[in-house]
Every structure is written in C-alpha cells, then in structure tokens.
Amino acid sequence: MTQPRPAPTSHSLLPAIAQRWSPRAYADTAVSDEALLAVLEAGRWASSCFNDQPWVFIVARHGTAEHAAMLATLMPFNQAWAAAAPVLLYSIARENFAHNGEANKHAWHDVGAATANMAIEASARGMQMHGMAGFDGAAARAALAIPAGHAPVTAFTLGFPGPASMLPEKLAEREEAARGRRPAETMLFRGTWNTAL
Fold it and tell me: I want to staple 92 with a disulfide (CB 3.0 to 4.6 A). Which of 56, 113, 145, 164 is the partner?
C-alpha cells in the first residue's frame, strides 16, 4: 500500500480530508466487511433536502460475477484500471421525493454529499474512493436492475491505494503528479460574485 498523499492546503484540515484523493492503482488487499459497512454508514448519515435520503448504493466485491458485470458498464479506459479495485459501487439517486412524489431537484446534490462522507470515512481508514463519470448509463440500468424513477449518478472504486508502478506509464505519471486546486480567490467570494473574501 502507498503512503498518504496530503494535499498542499492553505489551511489546516482534518487529516482524512487532506489525505483524500482519487487513485487508480489499488493494492491487492481486501476491504473487510466492517470497513465497507462503515464507509456505507458514513454515506447513510449525510444531510439531505427534507431528510429525504434519496441515495442507494449498489456494491460489488472483486472476484464476483457482480463485480464483473459492474465493471463491464464502465467505459474501456476506466475498465482497464478499475478491474483491480477490491470494491466497485454505484451511487443511485431517487429522482422524486418519497413524501409527496414531486421531482427532487436536489437529489444528485444530496447523493454527492453522501459519497463525500463516504470518501472521507474511507480516507480515515487508509482507503480511497475514485468516482467515475465514464460509464454507460443504459448498461448500468440493465446490469444493476435500477428501477424507473432512479438514476445512476457515479461509479466508484474503493480500496487501499497501491503503487503507481502497477499502472501503464502515462497513468502512473498522472498518479504521481503534484496535487492541486484552483486558487481560493477564484471560487470564494464575500457577499456578491467576484468580491474578494
């Protein structure tokens, strides 16, 4: 397993946040049931509009038919590296509120909040998640038996990071590249748009 890669943050953060990143190389280390359930529990306790909790997570472990079926829904580029991940999962959004059936325009935001909780919990346990938009939505619906009124949002890998050397050269370079974010002044404003904080 690789060592944590703390982000060059401008302010001190919780280690689980500063060390969270999205690897493509995964060690051949199983994720215990306890660790997996704790990561999922972190998602379960995220905040949501009207406390609607519009998320569903479908999980598959490496070496199972479910993992192979889920892997096949990913774009070929993602299949190439995600195949080694000990856990694959999909986040699913229920598109209508449970209490009144009306469209929930915040559902995807709330699913994102749940998966952010999960990523931080994973990081705190020495694991990492990598979210992927590169998947075939129709294939995911079929393979995962996603019912009407629900939409696949993101596919994820989960596991303990492995050495970049297990990846093809170009991906290994990306894996080891310096971490960074846009400057704070381009996204944090006071009172109105483009007013320095």
Answer: 56
CA-only gyration radius of the chain, Å: 18
Strands (E), the chain: 55-61, 87-94, 128-132, 150-159
- The mean pLDDT value for 137-156 works out to 98
For the chain, the domains span 27-161
Contact call for residues 22 and 154 (beta carbons, < 8 A):
no
Query: How confident is the model over 160-173, as pLDDT tens digits?
Result: 999 999 999 999 99
pLDDT average, residue stretch 6-27: 95
Q: Which two tokens stand for residue 39?
A: 């990561």
What's the whole-model pTM score? 0.94
Mean of the pLDDT values across residues 113-121?
98
Handedness of CA 130, 136, 137, 142 (dihedral sign): negative
Residue 78 tokens read as 């993602």
Largest CA distance in the chain: 53
Q: What is the pLDDT of residue 105?
A: 98
Rounded to an integer, what distance in angstroms lies between the CA atom of residue 64 and that of residue 143? Answer: 14
CATH homologous superfamily for the domain 27-161 = NADH Oxidase (3.40.109.10)
Copy the structure tokens of residue 177.
């590249």
